[in-house]
Amino acid sequence: MSQSRVIVGISGASGAAIGLRVLERLAEAGRIETHLVISPAAERTLAAEIGPEAPARARDLAAHCHDHRDIGASIASGSFRTAGMIVAPCSMRTLSAIAYGQLGDLLVRAADVQLKERRRLVLLARESPLHLGHLRAMAQVTEYGAIVAPPVPAFYLRPGDIAAIVDQIALRAIGLLDLGPDAPAPVEWRGEES
């Protein structure tokens, strides 16, 4: 495979700009083939939080788009090799479906494939506060091998605006896939200057 393949799932939680920014950063990097799945709730959230053009923009950024109902798509098979998958944002509904094997749509099925094939699965779990059911689902997907990465800003980087926060979180998620030196990377902490 001459380039890395990354699946990006956008579910219906608040924070849809993060999923869009992940796609933008991966597109800018080149040589990364993106496969996108947007849940119906994410369509609504993208339009509400970013604007009515946001779902189309996300699709334009991806190399391949898959209908969430198409459980026979290429990304539903373990034989379709990828570097991993990012779900940004990841609603608690989606996280729970992954945790408990409720494979009713392509987004959850593709995530399940990453786990069974021992590939990286990064879930930007978006909810607050959390109840015990949320925490148990997070623990369960972590035990299966997923990386639960709530979209928490790195305030020590002193972001100047929301766009900077979104970019930092998107880069951190991409960094967790360990795509190599040509992939976008988060800003590294260099220690306090004396």
From TrEMBL:
InterPro entries the record matches: Flavin_trans-like, Flavoprotein, UbiX-like
Residues annotated as binding dimethylallyl phosphate: Y156, R172
Any Pfam family the entry gives: Flavoprotein
Keywords: Flavoprotein, FMN, Prenyltransferase, Transferase
EC number, UniProt record: 2.5.1.129
Domain spans labelled Flavoprotein: 5-168
Binding site for FMN: G12, A13, S14, S39, S91, M92, R93, T94, R126
Catalysed reactions, semicolon-separated: dimethylallyl phosphate + FMNH2 = prenylated FMNH2 + phosphate
Record-linked NCBIfam families: PRK06029.1, ubiX_pad
Family: Belongs to the UbiX/PAD1 family.
Name the record gives this protein: Flavin prenyltransferase UbiX
